[in-house]
Amino acid sequence: MENPTVGATTTATTAETIIHHTTAFLSKAIADPELRNHLLALLHGGGRTHFAARFTAGSNLLKPHSLALEAVEKAIAATNLSVQSSSLAVAEKLLLCCSTTPFSSFLLSLIYSLVHQPAKAARAVLCLFRINPSVARSKFAPDLFQELFLVHLLPALRWFEEQRTRILSNSEAPPTTKVLSRMNGGQTRELKELEGIYEQVLDENCRVFAEYFINEVLSDGSVAEVGPPPAVVLGRGEAGEFAIAGFGRYNPIPKEEDAASTSSELCSPFGSSSPSSTPNSSSHHPPPATSSPAKEAVSPAPSNSDADDITSSSSSSSTASTSSSVSTPPSSSLSTEKNKRVASVQPLPYPLPRSNKQTRSSMAGFDSLQLSTTYKPSPPPKDFVCPITNNIFTDPVTIETGQTYERKSIQEWLDRGNSSCPITRQKLTSTLLPKTNYVLKRLIAAWLEQNPTSSSPPIETPPRRRKSAAAVGEPTSTPSLSPNSVIVAAAAVDGSVSELRHAINNLCMSEILDESEAAVLTIERFWQEEVKKIKNQNRGGIDVQSVLSRPAVVSGFVEILFNSDDPAVLRAAVFLLSELGARDGSVVQTLTRVDSDVDCILALFKNGLLEAVVLIYYLLRGSSSPEELMEMDMVESLMAVLERKESEMVEMCMKPRSAAVVLLGRMMASGEGSAVEAAIVEGIVKEGDDVVAAIVVSLESEWDEERVSAVGMLLKVMKEDGRCRNTVADKAELAPVLESFTGGGDGEKFEIICFLSELVKLNRTTYNEQVLHIIKDEGTFSTMHTFLNYLQTAPVDQSPVLAGLLLQLDLLAEPRKMSMYREEAIDTFISCLKNSEFPAAQVVAAKTIASLPGRFNVSGKSLTRAFLLKCAGVEKSYRILTQNEHQQAGELYGQTAEIEERAAEVWDMKMASALVSHEFGAIFEVLAEGMKSRNSELQSACFVSAVWLVHMLGILPDTGIRGAARVCLLDQFVAIFKSAKDNEDQVLALLALKSFLNDPEGLQDLNNNMKDVKKGLRELRKSCPLAVEVLKDLSEGKDNSAELWNHKELVQVDCCENGEVLSIACFKDKIISGHSDGTMKVWTGKGSILHLIQEIREHTKGVSSLVVLQSGNKLYSGSLDRTTRVWSIVGDTLHCMKVHDMKDPVHNLVVANSIACFIPAGTGIKVHSWSGRSNLLNSGRYVKCLSLVQGKLYCGCHDSSIQEIDLATETVSFIQSGSRKLISKASPVHALEVRDGLIYSAVSPLDGAAVKIWSASNHGQVGSLATTMEVRAMAVSSELIYLGSRVGTIEIWDRKKHIRVETIQACTNSKLISMAVDGNEDILVAGTSDGWIQAWEVS
C-alpha cells in the first residue's frame, strides 16, 4: 500500500481567520454552561490516560485543575469586574504552574478569552489539537477542525478515496451485487488497515498544522496571510513511529524557484505508481495477502459527465476491471473539472448530510494532482461574450434585431438617447428590453463549469457566509469524515438515479414548458425523499444538492418562475430554491446577480405565493436596509403569511411565519417613531388578534433573531393598541424570551425589559401578579439576579423601566425588612430623578413610579391620576377611562370586582410602603424637586407620584414618615392648590393636603395659608365633595362659619319704571327678570355689571313666575294676564314658542314635563295639562306658595298649614296643620322651598323661629332657623339658606349647622319679593318691591 503524502493547497490561513473561529467557539462555551461542562468532562475523561502516562502523581495534578476550574466558573458568574479579574489571575497562575494538558489548555483559553486576549486564547485552543488531535477533531471542536485544518487535508482525503476504490475494484462478485456483499476477507482486512492509517494521517497532520499555526501564524498576532506547510510526508521508521519530512521544523513555504520541482516530487503518488518516488516508502509495506502490484498501481478513472455527480459506486464491476487494466491519463478539461471541485465543508441548516457522496465525488476528481504550468484556459465562445463589454454575459437579453447584449450595457446605450441596434444599426420599434435569455444563460453556466479558470464577469454580490444553525432555528449536522461513513456511503443506488438525471436535463434543456414543470415536481419528490431518509436516520444515496446548486440548474428554476402559471409547480420551484439557498450561498449569489430574478420572486410573493417569503429572506439576508425593504411594498403580503395557518403552508427549511416575522422586524429597525414602523404597527393592529397571536407563537422559536423581532413588534403594537395586551399575556411563553435576554446585547435586553413591563399593565391586578410570577420563575437562571446584574451596568435611560420591573418582582413575596433588589431599584429611581443631565431618564423614572400602583385600564393606560381623583369624589376621568371595561368583561367582571379591588388595595399598600420606607422617605425629597421643574412632563409625573404616596400615608400606619413628607411637600401642594389653573390639579393637591390635616403639626403649618386655602375650598365645593369635607374639618368646633363665606356686592340696577320685580330666574350666565308691568328682561351675568341684552313686552300684566326646566333650554313665564308662555332660549335671546290660556291669573307657577300647577285667584291649586285640560286640587284652602318635586306638590297656605299632594293619586297629606290664629288674623306661609329631601317653610317669627325645616319622607320637623325677621322670599343652595325680609335685609344661614353665617343689606329698605341663586351657586340675585335688582358674588 502506498504511503500518503499531503500536498500543499493554495488555501492560506491568516491569524485573523484563526482568531475569528476560535473566538466564536470560546464565546459559545462561555455563554452556554451546558456546553462548557460537556467539553470539560470530555477533556477530563479523555485525558486521564495521557496524564497517567506522563505523570505518576495524577491525583495531585488534578487538584490545581479543580481549583482553577472553580476560579474560572466564579469569574464567569461574577458581575463585579474586580472579582472577575482576581479570579482569572488566580486560575492562570494555577494552570501555568502545571504541565500542559488538554484540560489545562482549554481552561487557559477560557481565561484569555475573558480578559480579551484572543491571540493567546487561540494558541491555547490549538494546543488541544497538538496534544490530543483525535479527541480535538472528532469530539471537542469538529467545527474548528473543518474551518482551520480540513481545507489543507483534501489531498489526504483524495488519497484515501483512491486506495479504497482500488481495494473495492478487485471484487469478483456479479456487478448487480451490493458493494459490501462483493468484498472478500482480504479486502475487509485491507480496508481496516487503510482506515487505521487514514486516522493516523489526520492526527499527525493535525499536530503539524497546530504547531505551525501556533509558532508561525500566531507568533506575533499579525493578520498577514501566511501559507500553510506545502507538504507532509508520513511513513513508518525503524522505531515504528511516524516521521515528518518537510522544509524545516514548521514546513515554511519554499522559495518560488523551488516550488515547481518540490511540488512535482511530493505529488508523485497521485500521478505515478512507483513506490520509489515517495520518500520513506520502503519503511512501510502493505499486507501481502490483500494486494498485488497491479492493484496498487492503478486508480480508477472517473466519468466526466454531470450524472457522475449524482451516481454512487453502483457502476458495474466490469467497468472497474476494464479501467484497472489500462491506465489512461486524464484530459486537460477533466483535470480542470476535477481541480474546480474542492468541497468546502460547512454546517447545514438541518441534517441533510452531503459529506459521504460529496467528499467522494470531490476526491474522485483528483486522480491526478499534476497542475500543469502549461495549461491555458480555453477562450469563451464568441456567442457567450457581449459585443459591447467584451465580457461573458451575466444577464443576456436578445433584442428584436436578433443581437444579444448584456442588459446593463444595452440599457445604458438606450438611456443615452439611441434608438437603434449598436451592431446592425436597425431602428428599434420599442426601447423596452425583453426578459433574460435563459437558454443562453444556462449554456454559459454549463460552459463555465467545464472551464472554471476562464475569465468570467466579476460577481457584484459578495458571497454571504451562511449563518450557524442557531441562526435558522434548526439543529446542525456536521459532515462525518470517518472511514466507516465513507464506506457506507459507497452503497449503490437504484435506477431512480437515471430518472433524476432525466428530470434535471428536462429542466435545463427542454423547450416544452410541460416537460420542465414535470421535471420540477420530480426533483422536489427526490429532495423530499432524501430529507425523509435523513430524518429517519437513514443515509441518502444521492447527492442531490451538489447538482441542483449549479448555476445552470438554478437558472432553470428561475425560468420556471417566469413562465409557469401552475401553483403547484411554482410552489415546488420556490421550495427547492429556498432549500438550496439555505445550504449553499452560491445559489443565493446566482439569484441575486440579476435584479429581474429577484423582482420576479417578489412579484410571485405579492400575488399570493406566500411560501416565497423564505426564499426572499435568504436573498435579502444582510443586504438591504429597512428603508429598502419597505420600498419593496411587502408588508401586506407578510401580514398574509402571519394570518395563514402553518398546516396550509409547505414544510420548508424555515417556517414562512418565521421569515415573515424577521423581515418585519428588520423593517422596523429603522428607528423609533419612523414611518416604516408606524406603517407596520398600523397594519398589525388593523389585522387584529389573529396576526398578534401568530407573532406571539414566534416567542417560542429556537431562532434568537425571530424571538427578538417578535418582542419588538409586540412591544410597539401594545403601545399603539393596548387592547391586544391580554391576548399576548394569555398566549406568550416567556421562558425563551428570558433566554434571549441572557444572551442579547444592550439594545435587545432593553427591548425585552420594555416588553415585559408593558405586559404587566393588564386591567386586572390578579392577572398582573400571575404574569409577574411567570417572569420571576421562568428561565434557566434566576430572573431577578439577572435583572439586578444588568441594572448595575445598564445605561441611565434604560434604568428606570428595569428598576420598576425589578421592584414589582420583589414585592410578589411578603414584604421583607431588607431586600437588595428593592434597595437597588429604589436607589435607581432616586438617582435618575436627581440626575438633571438626563432629563428623559428623569421623566421615565417619574412616570414609572406613578404607574407602580398597578391600576390600568384595558388599553394599558395608568389609572393612578384618575383613581386619586375618584378618591377625592371626582369620578368623571375614572369613568371615561374605564367606560368600556364592564362592557368587555361583562358579568365576569361583576363577579370578580370585589376580589380585584381587594387585590389592588393590597398591592397599592405594599408598593407605597416599600417606596416611602426607603431611607426614611428619601423619595419625597426628589419628588419635591421634580415638582419645581420647568419640564411639564416631569412636573406632572412627580406631582401625581407625590400625591399618591402622601395619600397612602394617610392609610398606612404612621411611622413618622408623614412628617418627612410634610416638610418636603406641603409648600408645593399649597402652591399648586392656590395657583393651578386645572381644577383636577387643585383636587389632587387638596387630597394630599387632607392627609396632613390629620396631624396637629400639619394643621399648624397650614395656618399661614389658611385664608387662601379656604378661598380655594369654597371655589371647589361645588365640583368636589372633598372640598366640602375639608371645609367642615377646618370649621369644626367654631360657633359660626362667617369667616368661611363672603358675599361681595356686584351690581344694583334700578328698574322702577317697570314696577315691582315679581320674579327672577337664572339660566347659565343669564339672569331673567319679570316685572309687574308685564315686561321681561334678559341680563348677562358676565363681569361685574348686569348688561341688558333683551327686553320683551308680550305679557299685558305682571309676570309673577319664571321657571327654567333643567331638561332643556325652555323658559316658562306665568302672568296675571291669565296666560303662560313657553320660550326657547337661543343664544342670548328668548323666542316665544307657544301661549297657553290658563283661564285664571297665574300666581306662583311650577312646571313639570306635561303639566303646570299654579295658584288661581280663589281657593285651591289649579293643575293645567298642556293639552288644555284643567283640574282643581285642595279647593278648601287658600294657597300662598308652591313647590313641585318628583310628582309631589307642596303647598304653603294662608292659615299656616302645609300640605303634600300626590299628583298621581290626588291624595293630600298634612305636614303642618293650620289651626293657629294670631289676633284673629291668619299667619300665612310666605315662602316654601324643597331641596335634598328637606322642606323649608317661612312663617311668622312670633314663636322665635320664622323658618322651620321638615323631613319630606316622614313629615317630621327636623330643625328651625332662629331668626326674628319677617321672611318674604327664600332661596336654598347646597350649603346656604338665603332669607329675604320685608325691610331689605338678607340673612344667610348654614344649611347643616343651622347657624347664621352673614347678614347683608339691599340698596333700599323695600320688601324683598324674589330671590334666586345661579346654577354654579356663585351669584345671588334679589328683586325688590320698588323695582331694584341687586346681585352679590358668593365666595
From TrEMBL:
Q: Which PROSITE patterns match?
A: U_BOX, WD_REPEATS_1, WD_REPEATS_2, WD_REPEATS_REGION
GO MF annotations in UniProt: ubiquitin protein ligase activity
| Chain segments carrying region Disordered | 255-361, 451-480
Q: Where is the U-box domain?
A: 379-454
Q: Please list the reactions this protein catalyses.
A: S-ubiquitinyl-[E2 ubiquitin-conjugating enzyme]-L-cysteine + [acceptor protein]-L-lysine = [E2 ubiquitin-conjugating enzyme]-L-cysteine + N(6)-ubiquitinyl-[acceptor protein]-L-lysine
Q: Does the keyword Repeat apply?
A: yes
Q: Which CDD domains does the UniProt record give? A: RING-Ubox_PUB
Q: Which pathway does it serve?
A: Protein modification; protein ubiquitination
Q: Which UniProt keywords apply?
A: Repeat, Transferase, WD repeat
| Composition bias type Low complexity, residue spans | 263-284, 311-336
Q: What is this protein called?
A: RING-type E3 ubiquitin transferase
Organism annotation? Linum trigynum
Alphabetically, which GO biological process terms does the record hold?
protein ubiquitination
Organismal lineage = Eukaryota, Viridiplantae, Streptophyta, Embryophyta, Tracheophyta
Q: Where are the transmembrane segments?
A: none
EC number per UniProt:
2.3.2.27
Q: Where are the WD repeats?
A: 1096-1129, 1314-1339
